[in-house]
Automatic annotation (TrEMBL):
Residues 1-27 are annotated as: Disordered. Residues 1-11 have a biased composition (Basic and acidic residues). The lineage of its organism: Bacteria, Pseudomonadati, Pseudomonadota, Alphaproteobacteria, Hyphomicrobiales. It comes from Bartonella apis. Residues 7-486 form the UvrD-like helicase ATP-binding domain. This is DNA 3'-5' helicase. Coiled coil: none annotated. SUPFAM superfamilies: P-loop containing nucleoside triphosphate hydrolases, Restriction endonuclease-like. GO terms for cellular component: cytosol; DNA helicase complex. PANTHER family: ATP-DEPENDENT DNA HELICASE SRS2 (PTHR11070:SF2), UVRD / RECB / PCRA DNA HELICASE FAMILY MEMBER (PTHR11070). Its EC number is 5.6.2.4. ATP binds at residues 28-35. Keywords: ATP-binding, DNA damage, DNA repair, DNA-binding, Exonuclease, Helicase, Hydrolase, Isomerase, Nuclease, Nucleotide-binding.
């Protein structure tokens, strides 16, 4: 393979983009190194002497902020280890000039400067920045100084309470305006329409609130009529008269219709004759039926025959003009009729949102959306805003914005306000202040969060004008070179988006895409599979027999993809562009939405023994592990619930099989639980299950929800049992479930019954971060894959409509002379021109974002892209498959598909490129240029899979992480030891003794006993005198022990955190622990760890978990201080009894763990 050189233009553009002397607006293609440029701009700012605290870097997600900060620290820490020649080379590449000795020293000190900055580098999301701003200026923002952020549970609870309070008040206050408003809305749209109204108001509360405040005042009717362009003369009566006059014809014309018209003409005349006899409301309906069909004007040929039009040549033009007038009049009439309904609806919405705000204010809480709104209002506020900006102006010199295309209009306003003093000429401080933004409009796919792609370019022009006005440097820079994808992938993208109808809306400039590959010589490919269409399946006559779901197109495609992936992994498919075999982690499957295809593919992959990550998002209550846990709760609350008990018995928690359940359930008398009791002597497993069930029933009566489930999952090994059956992916679900139980326990009603009702109604959704380093196939939406990459990408098209009328909003936005107003259109019969125009605009934007989603999906691929899909019976135009197929199939080679009935095409720029040989260190070399880290030019090799960080106190559990679920494992606290029967008292006693041993050595010896007694009386007032005296005695027995004196000197330390790596069973474990007491002497280190359980008689009886814990501590300390002797003391406070453990035995224990590795 030839070395991968970085083109001169790429180096030049990246250097210009990272120039700290100039403000810049950077448009960057996918894979062009946006994060790298941002990182090195920060480093160059620091290198120029900018204080770290004066740099504000705003990222889109917390994960992006963490990645960027890690890269900065890695680079700066790396500089501290470079010699002068290597560091000089790096700085020349970075700054374009040779540094002097002073510059080299400054570069090496940057890492320490960045670490020592109070609060660290300000690399954060804009929401985090706004939260900090509001905490800094709560008085000016008119919010509680101690405000806290609401979680989703609290928000949902408040919204539910606000809705309930509104409806109760509106219903009970008879003859009030609120009651009348409720009755009018209910009469017009019913309960479901009311629910839709309030739900949409909640979702759009940030945008609606200012308008609702205006329209809910005394001038509300006038404001709404002005917004809807209704004049005082536009009454319902006047408009109805005009409509009737326009619709009706003279008697002569009607006679002509009757004598010369066709059947449709006769129908037309009949409707007009009914108009004259009907009231106003009915007459309008007949006119609409006469002149329109499905809301659109009828064709003239459907109203009048050729013979009639020939006889009355003026009639065709006359009918067209009448239809045009009727369209305008009917539209205005609908707007007039909507005014009272809208005022009623807006009153309800205003009261709902006002109640929600009052609930938040009462508890000093803000929700996520409040942060931006309150921060923006603070910066714009007269008087206070200027003061805040003055204070901030003294602390921020450089603003950097990552993923700027996803920034919402309100967020842009905040950024502009923060930067407005940057470009005012000479100020109090002579500092060159800059604004930098990097983004890609083509990847703007978060419109549902308020992002407007055009705002990226618009705000760039605003900053540019400000900079030019004061003579400051500003640059528009394009990064077209991609370091991620092969030429085949990039050229396929350019081909798809070279048509004007395809690149429309891709960027503000509406130009075709241009990508330049750095990997121009690496082989890759783009493959297109024909979409799978539905096939007719003959359903069985017996309705009890299941219909074969394998014939569903989504399931068939899932099977084909799973078969393909399985073949690659099991037959050592080569990834030619990287010179190695394909791994599971190389494969990413992207979808537009999570439908039946996602679980079907996960299931198909598991059936073929292909490791697959779980869904990136899932509903907590629907996961099988959570369903088992909630079924157990239902049983303990109602033991006669046979269905819940049957579900639990077959779950991993108890593990009975079908035969066991059959034996218990068939021919039983009474409940399933009674039958289990009757059969408990038949089989030992039944007795064990019965004992556990009775234990859980008692436990549910005595313990809160969190402790109830914690006992089941931890002490009774429920977690291990579930993971053994469902796999490691269930671990995240169980963690989320326990977090949820804790949240409900803190904020909700107590008890299992209340918990079950809450989780059922709230149906919380959890988001799982999929680890790219795990050897698993990833399945996710394109939205979730933003910022990720993979060697092989399957882009799956569901063939669904881009726009679904069912999702059309009921609240229609109206521009009322620069003010945002709204119209509520609850149903088709209330359709207006305002609504039509707004919906059409939304449709166009949805189509543009749909194409941007396609761009994002295609550019995730590094080497190989497979575009495939499925569809329903009705073919939908403009889908991903169609756009890609039309662009690539004419220039592609037809190849064998995944199965005989699926055609396939292969697109490749140059088939003659040689495969990359197996890579060596020389192959991976990058031509030195702009100082890009090596991971930037190649796919990073995944780190060796490490188990979770190993805590020495639970070492025996964690090391044998593949042990069967039934193994009797006990996790023992490093302080508390084994739990006695009265575990809650033992825990409390052990904790207090531990604190005394931690803090007493820090006070004078003559004060220790007095302070110890005072502490025990205050911390444990409910204890008896005897219990406190016992704890006091135990404490001082330990401290007065001659062997332990080194641990309680002034030089000794308590709660010493220890971290490092230890090799066990051939694997490196990250070990993190806390030593109770440590004395680090000149030649000897003494460490002590306390246990309050029952002391064994001999060292040989000490549990293996304790011995391994101490062995890990000793090994880590010896690696840090190889020149010192390490004494290891295990202290049981019961006695006390001290064991000084033999160092050779501990070393043997670690070595034994190594040599017992199955690989050896």
């Amino acid at each position: 393979m030839s070395k991968r050189e970085i083109p001169e233009d790429a180096i030049k553009n990246q250097t210009a983009a990272s120039n700290p002397q100039s403000s810049a607006w950077v448009s960057a293609n996918a894979g062009s190194g946006k994060t790298h440029v941002l990182t090195f701009r920060v480093i160059r700012l620091l290198l120029n002497g900018t204080e770290p605290a004066r740099i504000l870097c705003l990222t889109y997600t917390k994960a992006a902020a963490a990645v960027m900060q890690t890269r900065i620290f890695q680079t700066l820490s790396g500089w501290t280890e470079l010699d002068d020649d290597k560091l000089t080379e790096v700085l020349i590449g970075l700054e374009g000039k040779k540094p002097d000795t002073k510059r080299l020293d400054e570069a090496r000190r940057l890492f320490a400067r960045a670490l020592e900055t109070p609060g660290g580098l300000k690399i954060q999301t804009i929401h985090a920045f706004c939260e900090g701003l509001l905490h800094q200026f709560p008085l000016e923002a008119n919010i509680a100084g101690h405000f806290e952020m609401m979680d989703d549970l609290k928000r949902d609870e408040f919204l539910k309470n606000a809705r309930r309070d509104l409806l109760e008040k509106a219903y009970l206050q008879k003859n009030s305006s609120l009651h009348n408003a409720l009755m009018l809305v209910l009469k017009t749209v019913g309960e479901s329409g009311l629910d839709t109204l309030l739900s949409e108001a909640i979702v759009k509360r940030q945008a609606l609130t200012p308008f609702l405040a205006r329209v809910s005042g005394p001038d509300g009717k006038h404001i709404l009529e002005n917004a809807l362009q209704i004049s005082p003369d536009d009454t319902e009566e006047n408009l109805t008269d005009e409509i009737r006059k326009t619709a009706l014809h003279s008697e002569e014309t009607i006679e002509a219709f009757k004598s010369l018209g066709h059947s449709y003409s006769q129908n037309f005349v009949e409707k007009l004759e009914l108009v004259e006899k009907a009231d106003n409301v009915e007459s309008i309906k007949f006119i609409e039926l006469a002149y329109f069909t499905s809301g659109n004007p009828r064709k003239i040929s459907n109203l009048a025959s050729k013979k009639l039009l020939a006889t009355l040549p003026w009639l065709a033009d006359d009918l067209l003009k009448r239809q045009e007038k009727l369209v305008l009049y009917l539209d205005k009439l609908r707007r007039v009729r909507l005014v009272p309904l809208n005022l009623a609806a807006f009153k309800l919405c205003y009261r709902l949102l006002a109640r929600y705000e009052s609930l938040k204010k009462a508890e000093g809480l803000l929700d996520f959306d409040d942060l931006i709104e309150r921060a923006l209002n603070l910066l714009k506020r007269d008087g206070a805003g200027q003061w805040v900006q003055y204070k901030l102006d003294r602390g921020i010199d450089h603003i950097l914005v990552d993923e700027a295309q996803d920034t919402s209009p309100s967020q842009w306003q905040i950024i502009q306000l923060l930067a407005q003093e940057f470009f005012v000429g000479e100020g109090q401080r002579e500092v060159n202040r800059t604004v930098f933004a990097v983004g890609d409009e083509k990847q703007s796919i978060y419109s549902f969060q308020g992002a407007v792609p055009e705002d990226f370019a618009t705000n760039g022009r605003i900053i540019e004008k400000k900079a030019e006005a004061v003579g400051k440097s500003f640059g528009h820079i394009r990064l077209n070179y991609s370091f991620r994808s092969t030429a085949d992938v990039l050229k396929s993208v350019d081909r798809v988006f070279e048509k004007p109808e395809n690149y429309k809306g891709l960027s503000a400039e509406n130009i075709k895409t241009v990508h330049e590959p750095v990997r121009r010589n690496d082989p890759g490919e783009v493959v297109i599979w024909d979409n799978i269409a539905p096939t007719d399946v003959e359903e069985p006559e017996d309705w009890r027999k299941p219909v074969d779901q394998l014939h569903a197109p989504a399931v068939r495609l899932a099977e084909e993809i799973a078969t393909t992936i399985s073949h690659w992994l099991h037959h050592h498919e080569m990834l030619k562009g990287q010179g190695r075999e394909v791994k599971a982690s190389d494969i990413m499957v992207l979808v537009r939405k999570r439908d039946q295809f996602v679980p079907a593919l996960a299931r198909a992959l598991k059936n073929r023994n292909v490791p697959v990550a779980g869904a990136d998002r899932l509903r907590l209550a629907s996961h099988i592990a959570v369903r088992d846990l909630t079924a157990l709760a239902r049983f303990v609350l109602q033991p006669q619930d046979d269905l819940s008990l049957a579900s639990v018995l077959k779950s991993p928690l108890f593990g009975l099989d079908e035969d066991d359940l059959y034996r218990i359930a068939v021919n039983r008398e009474g409940s399933l639980f009674n039958s289990l009791e009757a059969h408990s002597e038949d089989k030992p497993e039944f007795a064990t299950v019965l004992a556990l069930l009775k234990k859980y029933r008692n436990l549910a009566d005595k313990t809160p929800v969190y402790e109830f489930y914690s006992h089941i999952l931890s002490e009774d090994q429920g977690r291990a049992k579930i993971l053994a059956r469902l796999g490691s992916e269930a671990s995240d679900v169980l963690d989320a479930f326990m977090d949820y139980t804790l949240s409900i326990q803190k904020t909700g009603l107590p008890g299992l019954q209340a918990f079950l009702e809450t989780i059922k109604l709230s149906d919380p959704e959890i988001k799982r971060e999929l680890d790219q380093n795990r050897e698993e196939v990833r399945i996710m939406t394109v939205h979730a894959a933003k910022g990720l990459e993979s060697a092989i990408v399957f882009l799956v098209d569901s063939g669904s409509r881009i726009w679904n009328a069912q999702h059309e909003p009921k609240f229609i936005e109206i521009d009322d002379h620069g003010k945002k107003s709204f119209l509520w259109q609850p149903a088709k019969e209330f359709k207006t021109s305002f609504g039509d125009n707004y919906i059409n605009t939304l449709k166009l934007k949805a189509e543009e974002e749909y194409r941007r989603l396609l761009y994002v999906g295609m550019t995730r691929a590094e080497d190989r892209l497979i575009v495939c899909g499925y569809r329903g019976k009705n073919v939908v135009g403009g889908t991903w498959s169609e756009l890609v197929g039309e662009a690539l199939k004419p220039v592609s080679q037809e190849i064998a598909g995944p199965s005989p009935d699926i055609k396939a095409w292969r697109y490749c720029v140059d088939d003659n490129r040689a495969s990359v040989e197996t890579k060596t260190a020389e192959d991976e070399a990058i031509v030195p240029a702009f100082p890009l880290p090596s991971y930037f030019h190649k796919r990073m090799e995944p780190e060796t899979d490490l188990p979770k960080p190993l805590t020495p106190s639970g070492a025996s559990l964690d090391i044998d992480e593949n042990a069967p679920a039934t193994k009797n494992i006990v996790t023992i606290s490093p302080v508390l030891g084994e739990k006695p029967a009265n575990s809650s008292f033992a825990i409390e006693r052990g904790t207090l003794i531990h604190r005394l041993l931690q803090y007493l050595p820090q006070v004078r010896e003559e004060d220790r006993q007095r302070l110890a007694r005072a502490y025990l009386e205050k911390a444990a007032p409910e204890w008896s005198e005897e219990q406190r005296a016992d704890a006091f005695t135990q404490t001082f027995k330990v401290m007065d022990d001659e062997t332990l004196r080194p641990l309680f000197t002034k030089e000794a330390r308590a709660e010493v955190t220890l971290m490092g790596t230890v090799t066990i069973k051939g694997k490196k474990y990250v070990v993190s622990g806390q030593i109770d007491r440590l004395n680090d002497g000149d030649d000897t280190i003494v460490l002590g760890d306390f246990k309050t359980g029952r002391a064994p008689k001999r060292e040989q009886q000490i549990p293996d978990s304790y011995m391994l814990q101490m062995a890990l501590y000793r090994t880590l300390l010896m690696s840090i201080h190889p020149d010192k002797t390490v004494r290891t003391l295990l202290i049981y406070s019961d006695g006390p009894k001290v064991f000084e453990l033999d160092g050779k035995k501990l070393d043997f224990l670690i070595n034994k763990e190594k040599t017992n590795s199955p690989e050896q």
